[in-house]
Every structure is written in structure tokens, then in C-alpha cells.
Design goal:
This protein has helices spanning 4-13, 25-28, 42-48, 121-130; strands at 17-22, 38-40, 58-67, 73-81, 89-93, 104-109, 114-119. The chain is α+β, with helices and mostly antiparallel strands. The chain has a seven-stranded mixed β-sheet with strand order 1-6-7-3-4-5-2. A hairpin with a 5-residue loop joins strand 3 (58-67) and strand 4. The longest helix has 10 residues, at 4-13.
């Protein structure tokens, strides 16, 4: 059996960019907020967003995420929100996965697709400790 952490590290090392975060109650929809999708930090969004964008507009991009653990693909909506006064952010919606607060979501950009990993607590600690050597 392939070690998911080793595979994630290999994919990161060979990637065009990556993003990871511990999922919050807001990201997984467990707190009853009206927001949808996973919040992506501005710096990470700028590296991974596949279209040009500028403040004052909202830009949507369809992306395909191949989930490593299931080999299923999700057609997701990667969104840059720049219209709202004083707000700029990225979100990814339609991930078509059930997430748990505290999971580590890892999204890796390759030449032609995004690869998604969901790591539990033990896997995420191993992954983050090993990232210093990548």
C-alpha cells in the first residue's frame, strides 16, 4: 500500500504550486454560515488561480480536482471575489467531498490538473514535518 503522505510530498515536489490548510467549521459548513466552499488565502489563490483577475470584478474558473484517495474527479468552481467593497478573497466550491473540521486539505497544481489530498491529524503532522525537506 502506498503511503499517502509520501505520495503527497512527491506530488508537491513535482508541482507547479500547491495550497494547504486545516479546514475550519466555516469551510466544511458545520457552523451554519451562509458562505460556501473552502476559503483560500490571497497569496495562495494568486499562485493557483487559472485566469487573470483584478479588483472590482468576480471571476469564476472551472477546475478539475482528481482526489488521490478515490481516483474520483470533481468539477469545482474556483472563484475570485473582488467586487465587494474592501474585500478580496478566493474560494473553491463544489468539491463534492464530505470534510471534517481539522482535516488538512492539500491542493496541488500540476501541468494539466489539480490533485487533491485530505489528510487526517496524524497524516497532516507527518506531512508538515516533512515539508521542510521538500
Amino acid at each position: 500500500m502506498i503511503n499517502i503522505v509520501a505520495k503527497a510530498l512527491e506530488c508537491v515536489a513535482n508541482s507547479d504550486g500547491y495550497f494547504y490548510k486545516y479546514l475550519t467549521p466555516n469551510d466544511v459548513g458545520s457552523n451554519g454560515s451562509n458562505q460556501s466552499g473552502v476559503y483560500v488565502r490571497m497569496g495562495d489563490g494568486k499562485k493557483l488561480f487559472p485566469k487573470s483577475f483584478k479588483k472590482g470584478e468576480n471571476v469564476h474558473a472551472d477546475i478539475q480536482v482528481l482526489w488521490y484517495d478515490s481516483k474520483l474527479t470533481s468539477l469545482c468552481n474556483f472563484i475570485y471575489y473582488g467586487k465587494a467593497l474592501g474585500t478580496e478573497e478566493f474560494r473553491i466550491t463544489r468539491l463534492n467531498r464530505k470534510f471534517v473540521t481539522g482535516d488538512l486539505l492539500l491542493l496541488i497544481l500540476t501541468t494539466d490538473e489539480y490533485i487533491g489530498f485530505v489528510l487526517n491529524d496524524g497524516q497532516s503532522k507527518e506531512f508538515l514535518a516533512s515539508m521542510q525537506s521538500v
